[in-house]
């Protein structure tokens, strides 16, 4: 039976402001990418999400990003590699405190936003992320886009690598994500998202923005937590995957 992990970005709030329905999504997904304070997520939020995830048996992942609260981690930044490595390790370490207190652990690392897209091609920034993961200790898996520099370097460093696909994002013919600022970058039709999810899990392919069918082999599928109606959409995706004979389970 084909199997796939279902992940979502969680804990993306700060203080009294909340963006994601963490409780609802944690009843559906198998892995939680928890914001670690640099693009969203304060200590109380991180603690709460870790406790909820641990209680539900959902894997906890560190969603590391550039230090960009105002821009939600989606603005391009030039951070010196040594500084970026330290900041990645810092974020992982902060989340690990709350994960362990909840009886869990940080099970993997996933870059967020601008950092995620940057390390697809940028050698220096990708190497800094890998260095940060190693600095945090342990052989944590790195979750990222198939064919990205960060996964290549992580593998060379002895870290497990996990490929990821996005059911609600448009792809270029090269297998990269269409930038969010462009029309059609986010797939708004829920039924289209569900169908793409099944296609990615069953055949490892998706229709790119140009109309060409491209290969995207992934072990994990992301459903964005900040999408309107995210919980209902995630539930529909999981139900359709299971109905198609796909086992939904955490990779970590």
Structural account:
Pfam families: LamB_YcsF. Belongs to the LamB/PxpA family. Forms a complex composed of PxpA, PxpB and PxpC. It catalyses: 5-oxo-L-proline + ATP + 2 H2O = L-glutamate + ADP + phosphate + H(+). The protein has 252 residues and is an alpha/beta fold. The chain has a single domain, classed as Alpha-Beta Barrel (TIM Barrel). It has 8 helices and 12 strands. The strands form 3 sheets. Strands 1, 4, 5, 6, 7, 8, 11 and 12 form an 8-stranded parallel beta sheet that branches. Strands 2-3 form a two-stranded antiparallel ribbon. The chain is globular.
- Beta-strand percentage range: 15-25%
Find the CATH topology: TIM Barrel
Q: How many angstroms does the end-to-end distance come to?
A: 18 Å
Number of domains: 1
| Classification by helices and strands | alpha/beta
> Stretches where pLDDT falls below 50 for ≥5 residues?
none
Mean pLDDT across the residues is 95
Q: Looking at the structure, what is the overall shape?
A: globular
- Determine the number of helices (DSSP H or I, runs of at least 4 residues): 8
* CATH superfamily heading: Glycoside hydrolase/deacetylase
The succession of helices and strands, N to C, reads EEEHEHEHEHHEHEHEEEHE
Determine and state the CATH class: Alpha Beta
**Measured on Cα atoms, how large is the radius of gyration?**
17 Å
Helix content: 25-40%
Outline the biggest β-sheet: 8 strands, parallel
Provide the CATH architecture.
Alpha-Beta Barrel
Tell how many strands the DSSP assignment holds.
12
Family: Belongs to the LamB/PxpA family.
Pfam families: LamB_YcsF
Protein name: 5-oxoprolinase subunit A
Catalytic activity: 5-oxo-L-proline + ATP + 2 H2O = L-glutamate + ADP + phosphate + H(+)
């Amino acid at each position: 039976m084909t199997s796939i992990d279902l992940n979502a970005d969680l804990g993306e709030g700060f203080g009294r402001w909340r963006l994601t329905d963490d409780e609802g999504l944690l009843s559906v997904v198998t892995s939680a990418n928890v914001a670690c304070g640099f693009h969203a997520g304060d200590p109380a939020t991180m603690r709460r999400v870790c406790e909820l995830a641990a209680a539900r048996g959902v894997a906890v992942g560190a969603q590391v990003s550039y230090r960009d609260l105002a821009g939600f981690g989606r603005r391009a930044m030039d951070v010196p590699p040594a500084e970026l490595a330290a900041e990645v390790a810092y974020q992982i370490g902060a989340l690990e405190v709350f994960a362990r207190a909840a009886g869990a652990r940080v099970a993997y690392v996933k870059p967020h936003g601008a950092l995620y897209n940057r390390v697809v091609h940028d050698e220096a920034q990708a190497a800094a992320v890998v260095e940060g993961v190693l600095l945090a200790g342990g052989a944590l898996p790195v979750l990222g886009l198939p064919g990205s520099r960060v996964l290549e370097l992580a593998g060379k460093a002895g870290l497990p690598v996990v490929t990821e696909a996005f059911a609600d994002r448009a792809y270029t013919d090269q297998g990269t994500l269409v930038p969010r600022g462009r029309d059609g970058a986010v797939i708004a039709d829920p039924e289209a998202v569900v169908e793409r999810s099944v296609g990615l899990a069953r055949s490892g392919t998706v229709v790119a923005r140009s109309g060409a069918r491209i290969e995207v082999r992934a072990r994990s599928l992301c459903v964005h937590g900040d999408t309107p109606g995210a919980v209902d959409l995630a539930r529909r995706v999981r139900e359709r995957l299971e109905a198609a004979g796909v086992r939904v389970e955490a990779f970590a």
